[in-house]
Batch of 2 targets.
Target 1
Amino acid sequence: MKRTYWKHCHVATMRDGRYHAIEDAAIVTCGKHIEWVGARSERSASGTDACVDLQGAWVTPGLIDCHTHLVFGGNRSLEFEQRLQGVSYADISAAGGGIKHTVRHTRDATEDALFESARKRLLALMREGVTTVEIKSGYGLDLNSERKMLRVARRLGEALPVTVKTTCLAAHTVPSEFAGKADEYVNYVCNDILPKLAEEHLVDAVDAFCETIAFSPSQVMRVLLRAQKLKLPVKLHAEQLSPLGGASLAAEMGALSADHLEYMSADDAAAMGRAGTVAVLLPGAFHMLQETRRPPVDLLRRHGVDIAVASDLNPGTSPALSLRLMLNMACTLFGLTPEEALAGVTRNAAKALGMLGTHGTLEAGKTADFVAWEIDRPAELAYWLGGELPSRTVRHGEWRDLTSV
Ligand code: NIG
Ligand code: FE
């Protein structure tokens, strides 16, 4: 296997969720894996097949966007205009818009059309150093349409140099054909959608939306229990718009993550800390919905909850095409430090996807996914607003070239 010596760089390893910076560092990769990371003075290039000069770059783990809904039909810019006029997200949803609007457009779209539109959005994330992305279904809400979305997600991972984790979010909202029959729809999700799509190996994890405009905690619990019977890890959209106790429920079920969390309580934070459930914060949705209640970051810190940050890329509440912008917003809107924000899209995002054993930090034995940034300090990753920050990405031990994809 090819051994490469990467030198003339500084490394933020993100081990334990801290920079653990090594200045004047070197990295040795062997095939797809990291063999060694440390101070350059401690290891020479001897025994390696190639030597790459990183020209003083700062190297971080490849970025991980652990919560996206990036496969969808149409867009909701019209609703954006309505919300700016004062109509609420819940009102739009009650009038048959919101998630249901996107469901109509996603059901109508061909698999190829969904693939093409999602591919462009995913490339925008990848150009900023994203090497792993989670993609949820949840705009199909029937077996065939959920299957179509998850197939697109899998195809994206095969066609592009990026690692894709799929999540089945069939319990995103009650589709109009089940209006007033949420429990029956939950039966359909549990008895048909989940087992069939799991059998087709389209599902890496299962999620649900616990909210007054979606599913109650007891309905959500049925979905998550069914997922666990299928041996699938679970996660939950919880406490986004109201406090229903979904975060505690997720933690008690050993969920990988609970996501959003603006309305979470101290009890929720304690339960998540005990369970090791990651808190995934989504500043794009908070910003787009012009929310004023921030997720309680101090409570999360106090209870030792690992915090991740993600784009929530979706057409309704977070049309966010930049994970780096989310780092800035996690700092300015939620009060994270740039170091916490970076941990949120590396180590803790890997944990939220159940991938910490192989991804998320730069340590011997892990997958050689990393980004070499032309910056002077790691905090710059959360500092620059938009634009292009010069960087080059290594995936599986090789430079990633996006010009031909
Ligand atoms: O994460 N909260 C639920 N789901 C998405 C929004 C989906 C939509 O509005 O289309 C979210 O914000
Ligand atoms: Fe979401």
Target 2
Amino acid sequence: MSRVALVTGGSRGIGAAISTALKDAGYSVAATYAGNDEAAAKFTDESGIKTYKWNVADYDESKAGLAQVEADLGPIDIVVANAGITRDAPFHKMTPEQWHQVIDTNLTGVFNTVHPIWPGMRERKFGRVIVISSINGQKGQFAQVNYAATKAGDLGIIKSLAQEGARAGITANAICPGYIGTDMVMAVPEKVRESIIAQIPAGRLGEPDEIARCVVFLASDDSGFINGSTISANGAQFFV
Ligand code: CAA
């Protein structure tokens, strides 16, 4: 039987590429989404991947949704915590609401996604936790105190989970994408986006598939000794 993979925010952008690549690699895949029913239905039509709607910022909703996925597909072996939002503003203009929205979705959302299925992974002695962080968690970013805090937080999460899961056959790793050609990056004002691309030695935005291929590797048995690591995929924009 094929292993089961769950991708949060898995019906659009980088998440859709990840869901599709995992399916193509032979996994049974479930993708979650927060609100865009139309995009999710289109994604399911095109890919054959079932989508589930819940808010990753809510623990009880996440727990119930994860239980439904496991009832439908079987125990989740691979979890890709990808769901994320931006609420960019210079710090002096950032509201408490913008801070909390991003922390709740991007950071608490990782806890809510992994925590309910962690005991099952421990019992079965296998698991792959893959968290989609960001270059901006590594270097910080003007107008992203909230977002950068969550993406740096992801790296603390995977390094800690790696130590807790290693003996139970669970790995926890992060990918830090640079600027990828998704709706999120296209929402940045054009002038700002052009100045960002000028800072990328590769001279272009990344492709969602270039992140998805990293996920497929981290999900595989071949990556079993890689634990607590971060793969940076940013066209040489930033080195840790
Ligand atoms: N570095 C230094 N200064 C900057 C800057 C930067 N990166 N970006 C903007 N500024 C400056 C502007 O030049 C302007 O200066 P002046 O007042 O002297 O003209 C000032 O900051 C902007 O002030 P505003 O009051 O006009 O700012 P605003 O309230 O309108 O906010 C913004 C504008 C939200 C910052 C907008 O410029 C923006 O969206 N910037 C992009 C932020 C960004 O890179 N986000 C990443 C999104 S993609 C992502 O997050 C995916 C991922 O993981 C990589």
